[in-house]
Write a structure and sequence with these properties.
Layout: E1 10-14, E2 17-18, H1 25-40, E3 48-51, H2 53-61, H3 70-85, E4 88-89, E5 95-96, E6 98-104, E7 115-118, H4 124-132, H5 135-152, H6 158-172, H7 182-200, H8 208-222, H9 226-235, E8 243-249, E9 260-265, E10 277-282, H10 288-291, E11 297-298, H11 301-306, H12 314-317, H13 319-336, E12 340-347, E13 350-358, H14 363-375, H15 381-387, E14 400-401, E15 409-412, E16 414-417, E17 420-426, H16 429-437, E18 442-446, H17 454-459, E19 462-465, H18 473-481, E20 485-487, E21 493-495, E22 500-503, E23 506-509, E24 513-517, E25 522-525, E26 530-531, H19 537-549, E27 553-557, H20 561-569, E28 575-579, H21 582-585, H22 589-598, H23 602-626, E29 631-635, H24 649-659, H25 663-673, H26 685-690, H27 692-713, E30 718-723, H28 729-750, E31 757-762, H29 765-769, H30 771-777, E32 780-783, H31 785-793, H32 804-809, H33 826-840, E33 845-848, H34 856-865, E34 869-872, H35 877-891
Parallel strand pairs: 4-5, 17-18, 18-19, 19-20, 27-28, 27-34, 28-29, 29-30, 30-31, 31-32, 32-33, 33-34
Antiparallel strand pairs: 1-2, 1-3, 3-8, 6-7, 6-8, 9-10, 9-12, 10-11, 12-13, 14-26, 15-25, 16-20, 17-24, 21-22, 22-23, 24-25
Helix pairs in contact: 4-5, 5-7, 6-7, 14-15, 14-19, 15-19, 19-35, 20-23, 22-23, 23-27, 27-28, 28-30, 30-33, 34-35
Bound molecules: adenosine-5'-diphosphate (ADP) and magnesium ion (2 copies).
Length: about 900
């Protein structure tokens, strides 16, 4: 990057115009770009300027030093802000005070710290007292500044100041900050400065110039602190993006009872309802609203009534500012064509906008907002399809509390993030991670959460806090993660030391079960019954729109009638993978299966298989009836036979007696079949090659069931018989011959034939390479990307846990290749398989049946390479449908999502 002094490092905004625009987010960060845009829209925004993200990059490239020209450009911009406000930075008589705010390209809530009231010192505080006529306000601002600055820039812990404040209040015999006057704050400022000297080793900086550069440096430095890195890692934000710094003239929400500060959404972020929604605090500054120290008031009267709050709403307490906010939010929503999350401050009755960005929302709200925005004509239906994150649908596809279930409600708080969750109580993030590792669902219970708790929030099923409102850290982050959250449960007392929470007569310990309902705010003791999700309304509408643009089909991996029913309900267009092995385990069948494995010859095996046939036919009949009219892909027996034999001594004795085979012989056979590496052993089509009678029995069951189902439903399925683990055409042909012969036999016997296909899985690298030959006889390919990933990378999925984390952390692999398909490697094998297969057989049907079929990023890849369908677990079918629609739109370059700020 060129870093000469001619480079423009600083972009100014204010007084109805700006050098930046919202499209310049990469350069100005989300906050800076949107502040500029709001200025250009003529909205009231305090003037200021943005130092670009390129400065951050240059700063780190040059050993944490600033590029030439920056200081001059900052000084110039600062003078311009002074001119607009009629003040001057550092002027003892008429000081300009500023905020220093970070702002990356992508929103990183709570990751970077903001410093307010910068420019105050022992002199300017007096000037502020004089100009405002309110010394209490001036000294309150000064002590806030010392606290924030010392914390963010000098690294002095908050609690040092908090303790001093508590101590002072105790001595005075008061309990509220509001009971302190100007003299009190002035005394405390003295105490605070002493704390800084003691803790930091030097005096609190008095020169505004030093303060400013200290804060700017702190913002850039905060880009690399562990919690920011962690957030980027979790959200796949590249380190190279950097953050911008915004320096902006202060407006004061703490100037008395006609001043306030607040946050508001243009639509309800939990439900999506189209109505202004938010919280504010009178006589308060910035972080007070989200910090959860005072409980905020509602913005609208309607929300106040619903929340049964006795504190007046902004609508009644400040009707003019409310009208102004209403006017502005309409402009912003129309302009951005999306729900906005806004921050504002009212100074002596005048409303100022401090931020706007596309608001985070629950999946439920995302659906409703997208559908309604399209209904209002603000966006197209295709854009609406692009507005909902497919993975977020997961939230809606999961259970909520059964309305008929008995609930032992012990407390209530705010419904901060919807959905219900049950788990054991944990009081810190480490315990949450430990519980998760041990496979025990947990609920993270905290007084309030901070960015340090992100990993614990990830590890838990839901979050419960005793402090904080709907816009508290816990609430915002939980909604983003799609986790249920109940916040501000004031009646619960937490004792971290004792590891207990208590409310009234009830005391629960860490490890006790608790249930939270993030849709109602209820907290319940113990486990509570849940019910299946509702799939009508906005969900159905959006899915219909998605299906309208989608070109790939979506099938489900389903082995049982229950799976198949869920799959159809969720809109699956067939079964892409029916594994038959579980059918061998159930009930009495396992006895016959073992008999088959222990037989000495084909004769004996056939006799045993004849006993399994009716069961297997019955299973297929049930599936074919549910799936009538659709294709069903059935994979022939895949796992190694030793999986069906007993493992413990006791089991051996039992099996020996039930099959009438001696224990010796049984053990001998077990030894014969045991393998060093079953993943690469005697399995897949190798079974059908060695014991063709197994494949024949399965084929007979399939065709007989298909004939019967066709008669029963009048609408036949198309069975697609799939041969697993093939790597050469010869293997495939041997098995296919048996299947075709059986189809003919069944058709001769029953007098009715069914349309069917025989194809193969492509799950070994050699199969992908030899696809041109295999496709001569195979009528379809299904890419089995689980095994293809294992065999292409030489990584056993079951053994990857110990090292794969390090691979993704170090950036060796972009993502877990078992979650998101490795496009470069495994993806290339898929491309080769498609290309060579289609060259030989142009109408070759192509699908995918690994876990990747339900992963949105992998679904995009499937669209790109031209698969006919993806197949995934039944619960992920809607996610795949939406992802496939977005992938189709991306191909036609429509419906791209407006990134948020
Ligand atoms: P975050 O990214 O954490 O939201 P912000 O930079 O938006 O941090 O600052 C947090 C809050 O500080 C804002 O919501 C606003 O209330 C307050 N704030 C920031 N700048 C100013 C300013 N110039 N005047 C008054 N308040 C401000
Ligand atoms: Mg903000
Ligand atoms: Mg496989």
């Amino acid at each position: 990057m060129a870093t000469d002094s001619a480079t423009k490092w600083v972009y100014s905004f204010g007084d109805g115009k700006a050098e930046g625009r919202s499209s310049m987010r990469d350069l100005l960060g989300g906050k800076g770009a949107n502040l500029a845009e709001m200025c250009n829209l003529g909205l009231p925004v305090p003037p200021g300027f943005t130092i670009t993200t390129e400065v951050c990059t240059a700063y780190y490239e040059n050993g944490k030093s600033y590029p030439p020209g920056l200081r001059e450009q900052v000084a110039e911009a600062l003078t311009a802000v002074g001119a607009l406000t009629g003040k001057a930075f550092g002027d003892a008589g008429n000081p300009l005070l500023v905020s220093v705010r970070s702002g990356a390209r992508a929103s990183m809530p709570g990751m970077m710290d903001t410093v307010l009231n910068l420019g105050l010192n022992d002199e300017t505080v007096e000037a502020l007292a004089a100009s405002s006529g309110d010394p209490r306000f001036a000294y309150d601002s000064y002590r806030r500044f010392i606290t924030m600055y010392s914390n963010v820039v000098l690294g002095v812990e908050h609690h040092a100041f908090e303790e001093a404040l508590e101590h002072y209040k105790d001595r005075k015999g008061v309990s509220l900050d509001t009971e302190l006057g100007a003299e009190d704050w002035k005394t405390l400022v003295g105490t605070y400065k002493k704390i800084v000297r003691d803790e930091h080793g030097s005096d609190f900086p008095q020169k505004p110039e030093d303060q400013l550069w200290g804060a700017i440096g702190a913002v850039f430095d905060s880009w690399m602190i562990p919690r920011a890195k962690k957030y980027r890692e979790l959200n796949a934000i590249p380190e190279s993006w950097g953050t911008a710094v915004n320096v902006q003239a202060m407006v004061f929400g703490n100037m008395g009872d006609t001043s306030a500060t607040g946050v508001a959404f243009t639509r309800n972020p939990s439900t999506g309802e189209s109505a202004l929604y938010g919280e504010f605090l009178i006589n308060a500054q910035g972080e007070d609203v989200v910090a959860g120290i005072r409980t905020p008031q509602d913005i609208t009267e309607k929300a106040r009534v619903e929340a049964k709050s006795d504190k007046p709403s902004m609508e009644t307490a400040m009707p003019e500012s409310f009208a102004e906010l209403t006017r502005i939010y309409g402009i912003l929503e129309k302009h951005y064509r999306d729900m906005q999350d806004m921050e504002f401050t009212i100074e002596s009755g005048k409303l100022w906008m401090l931020q706007t960005r596309s608001g985070k929302r629950t999946a439920k709200a995302a659906l409703r907002i997208a559908v309604e925005l399209a209904g209002e004509g603000l966006i197209t239906r295709e854009e609406a399809v692009g507005r909902v994150e497919p993975a977020a649908l997961d939230q809606l596809l999961h259970p909520t509390i059964d309305p008929k279930a008995e609930r032992k409600v012990i407390a209530s708080g705010l419904p901060a993030s919807p959905g219900a969750a049950t788990g054991e109580i944990v009081f810190n993030s480490e315990a949450a991670e430990a519980a998760r590792k041990a496979g025990r669902p947990c609920i993270l219970v905290r007084i309030e959460t901070s960015p340090e708790d992100i990993h614990g929030m990830h590890a838990s099923e839901g979050i419960l806090t005793t402090r904080g409102g709907m816009t508290s850290h816990a609430a915002v982050v939980a909604r983003g993660m799609g986790k249920p959250c109940v916040s501000g449960v004031g009646s619960i007392r937490i004792d971290y030391k004792a590891g207990t929470l208590s409310v009234g007569a009830v005391t629960l310990k860490a490890g006790d079960m608790v249930t939270i309902d993030g849709s109602t705010g209820q907290v319940m003791q113990g486990r509570v019954e849940m019910v299946a999700p509702e799939l009508s309304g906005d969900f159905a509408t959006l899915m219909e729109w998605a299906d309208g643009v989608r070109t790939m089909k979506v099938r489900a991996n389903a082995d049982t009638p229950t799976d198949a029913r869920v799959a159809r309900e969720f809109g699956a267009e067939g079964i892409g993978l029916c594994r038959t092995e579980h059918m061998f385990f159930e009930g009495d069948r396992i006895v016959a299966v073992r008999e088959m494995i222990l037989s000495d010859d084909a004769e004996g095996r056939r006799a045993a298989l004849a006993k399994i046939l009716p069961y297997q036919r019955q299973d297929f009949l049930a599936l074919f009836t549910i799936m009538s009219g659709l294709p069903v892909t059935i994979r022939l027996l895949d796992p190694p036979l030793h999986e069906f034999l007993p493992h413990t001594d006791a089991e051996v004795t039992e099996v020996a007696s039930s099959t009438g085979v001696s224990e010796d012989k049984l053990r001998h056979r077990m030894r014969e079949l045991s393998e060093f590496n079953p993943m690469l052993g005697f399995r897949g089509c190798r079974l059908a090659i060695a014991f063709p009678e197994i494949a024949e029995m399965q084929a007979r069951a399939i065709f007989e069931a298909a004939v019967e189902a066709a008669k029963k439903t009048g609408s036949p399925v198309t069975p697609e018989v799939m041969v697993p683990l093939v790597f050469t055409q010869a293997e495939f042909d041997i098995v296919k011959a048996r299947i075709d012969a059986m189809a003919k036999a069944v058709s001769d016997e029953t007098g009715s034939s069914v349309a069917y296909q025989v194809g193969t899985m492509i799950e070994l690298p050699r199969a992908a390479l030899k696809a041109g030959e295999i496709a001569r006889t195979a009528e379809f390919f299904s890419f089995g990307t689980n095994d293809l990933t294992q065999t292409a990378l030489g990584i056993s999925r079951d053994d990857a846990g110990t090292f794969l984390g390090a691979y993704t952390q170090k950036g060796i692999l972009a993502a877990d290749p078992f979650v998101t398909i490795d496009q470069e490697g495994v993806g290339e094998l898929v491309r080769i398989g498609i290309e060579r297969g289609r060259a030989v057989r142009p109408n070759l049907k192509l699908g995918i049946c690994g876990e990747h079929g339900g992963d949105p990023a992998s679904v995009h890849f499937c669209q790109e390479v031209g698969l006919d369908y993806v197949s995934c677990s039944p619960y992920r079918v809607p996610i795949a449908r939406l992802a496939a629609a977005q992938a189709a739109l991306a191909g036609t370059s429509g419906g791209a999502h407006q990134s948020e700020g």
